[in-house]
Amino acid sequence: MNVPWLTVPGEQPQGAATGTLAVCFAPTGAHGSTFASWRGRLPEDTTLAFVAPPGRGTRVDEEPVTDMAAYAEATAAGIRELRGGRRLVLIGVSLGALLAYETCRRLLDSGVPVARLCAVAGQCPGDFHGRGEEVTVEDARAFVAGTGLTDPELLADPEFEEVLLPPVIADLRLAAGYDGRLGAVPQVELRAVWATDDPHVPEVTVRRWAEWTRGDCTLMSVEGGHYAHQENPAAVISACLDGLPGTRPSRRSVLGAGATAVASTVLGLGAVASSAPAARADAATGTGSVSFDGDPTDPVGLAVAMIRQNTSNPGDGAVTLPLARMLQGIFRAAGVGTEIVPTPKDGNVHFFARVPGSGPATKKPLVLLGHSDVVPAIGDTWETDPFAGEIRDGKLYGRGSLDMKGVNAAFVAALLRHVREGAAFDRDIVFWSDCDEEQGPYGVRWFLTEHPGKVTAGAVITEGGWVLDQRDGTTPMIASLTCNDKRSLLLRLETVSYATHTSKPFSGQAVIRLGEVLDQLGQWRAHIRPNALSRRYFSELAEATTDRPFAKALREMLGARTDRQRDRAGEAVVRLSETPELHNAMLRTTLAFTAAQSGYYPSIVPGTATAEFRAAFLPGAEDPGRIVAELRSLIGNRATLSVVGNPGETEQQALDRLRGYLATPDSDYDTDVFRAWQSAVRRTHPGVRATACQFEAVTSAVPFREQNVPVYGMYPFTVNRDMLKRMHGTDEHIGVEALRQGTETVYQLLAGLRTDA
């Protein structure tokens, strides 16, 4: 029985009412025959269906579809017609995983349930952004040769190539134009299958599929290469179909699986042995959320549970609802009122918990502002699972452990300890975990605009200042509370030459010129220009440090009268500092290089090369327009430097917007909240100086500061250079005992606002 776009080999019409319908999406350039070895191996009540798109197989004379949306819509229509009352499983291999994912989205949108989505040896939707170049015949040849799709001798046959390459070209164009970020993340059980010998899609890539469902995601491993579905069909079938309710494997599948089926071990994402409390599935919500079984006043257990919630933000916002539901359960169990506020992106939410103030002298609320989202853990190899929350050698590893789930855990644990004690505060204490701090349109500014008056803050505490040790690495030296942020500007470089065959290289190639310009910009240094907040911090640091040469350099820098004297002394400060990258960023405009791109085929010297970097500015120091002009003068006509603003902005508008941000006044540090923090530091770190400071990064503080609401930033635990370097990097971690001590600082700060003390 066949319908448009689907083929069901050997099925009789009367067999269409019950059981499971497994719809298989072939890899790039292939069709249904790639699953031929699956017949007879499926569970007894499972029917196999192949997606049969135009341009291949029996439809080879039809025009291929190269638009992902059209492809998925047509496939979904065929499935709706064919399904009957059967349980539906979608299985995609390689490119087919993306096709299955997009089809799943459309089926769910039309009310058709999908029991399971299986991605086998496939890159995840977040790896595609719709900016692919035009695909050529040469691209298709390179792909076929590189992936081993067919025998090289067959590829050399012109007649065979005429049959093989058109569907490959069509599928490569599908991928090139695909933007996986468009559309809601579906609520579906997902199996992500990794082939252990796959040179094209490694395990770390397959793990990222967990970010693309709001349901449960299970990572499976099978023996085999990129086409394991052909090399090892029994193991792949087992990985995709085992555990479905009411299914029984066929005898042939059981006997044929052998050791390879045992090798398809379930690796529960985030399930790593540790002493932390368990986070268990909450079946009542049906959202893949979890509840927390540990002590909510234990910041380490809380941080582990938060890290295990994968809230990676691919650039347009994260899925934070499961974490919000976990937090909701924690606060509700303590008798604290909560609210989850959705945004236009499905699963992307703000979470609030409010402890009411008491007494006639109630002041405007203190907001403890954290963020639920974290940057992705992709691109570089971790020694630990970034979403396991593993504790090793006294350190808690995981994406977000430092930025900023460790701080969130300190906020929650300290606040709930007061609640457990029956605290009465002189104002409401609001814990707010926002969703789009790293990237995305629905963060704090969106919330304050769309929900005016929902949060009327008297003061805000969020991420920011650091606690640093003396040179011995054990004795606390200085604690800082940040009162303003740096702001950054995205800049783009482009070099141009001409494209040619690699057999005829020439001087002045675009890639080489780009490298030369980047090297020159990498050597550039702005003048040392500490602003008022930085001067206050470094003045306190000069008194706090026991390192005499360091203190001398600090005083010389602060007392310098000329740029030359200040630059020389400032360079000595950076050189002598135990955290040179941090202190350098607090003293000057800095450049950070984030991306470079060039080339599109191995036998072509490309005619263009581009790179992007961020210039970060201190409020009250350099003018952004002057720095852009200086950089253009430095590189001359060897490259084009452009300002990347918001969509539709001119360069002047982008610069003026940045100047407005930089003109936002520092938060006032003559407040009861600032003094409560200083008192808390004296209690938890006796003898340590507690000072106002300039933050070296950007936070969600600006919309509040624009309303004259004081915002203070703190990372309340002690950090060292290695920990700071791993922020947004590989093997991000914090110290377990430092987290406990930092939580005590937050507790003591809140204690200063109690009326029942």
Low-confidence stretches: 12-16, 247-289
How large is the count of helical segments?
24
Termini gap: 77 Å
- Report the principal-axis shape: globular
Indicate the proportion of strand residues: 15-25%
What structural class do you assign from the helix and strand content? alpha/beta
Cross-sheet strand order for the largest sheet: 1-3-2-4-5-6-7-8
Q: How would a crystallographer describe the biggest sheet? A: 8 strands, mixed
Write down how many β-strands occur, each being a DSSP E stretch of 2 or more residues.
27
- Helix share, percent: 25-40%
Mean pLDDT across the residues is 87
| Rg measurement, Å | 29 Å
SSE blueprint:
Elements (H helix, E strand, L loop, with lengths): L5 E2 L12 E6 L20 E6 L16 H16 L3 E7 L1 H15 L6 E5 L16 H11 L4 H4 L2 H19 L13 E6 L7 H5 L9 E6 L5 H4 L1 H9 L9 H13 L2 E3 L10 E3 L8 E3 L6 H9 L13 H13 L3 E6 L6 E7 L7 E9 L19 E2 L2 E3 L3 H20 L6 E8 L9 H7 L8 E11 L6 E10 L1 E10 L3 E2 L8 H14 L8 H13 L3 H12 L3 H14 L3 H6 L4 E9 L5 E2 L2 E10 L6 H12 L4 E5 L6 H12 L9 H13 L4 E7 L6 H4 L5 E9 L1 H5 L7 E3 H16 L6
Helix pairs in contact: 1-2, 3-5, 8-9, 10-12, 12-24, 15-16, 16-17, 21-24
List keywords for this structure.
24 helices, eight-stranded mixed β-sheet, 757 residues, alpha/beta
Q: What would your notes on this structure say?
A:
- With 757 residues, the protein is an alpha/beta fold.
- The chain is 35% helix and 21% strand.
- The protein is built from 24 helices and 27 strands.
- An 8-stranded mixed sheet has the order 1-3-2-4-5-6-7-8, sandwiched between helices. Strands 11, 12, 13, 16, 17, 18, 25 and 26 form an 8-stranded mixed sheet that branches.
- The longest helix has 20 residues, at 401-420.
- The radius of gyration is 29 Å and the shape is globular.
- Mean pLDDT is 87; it is low at 12-16 and 247-289.
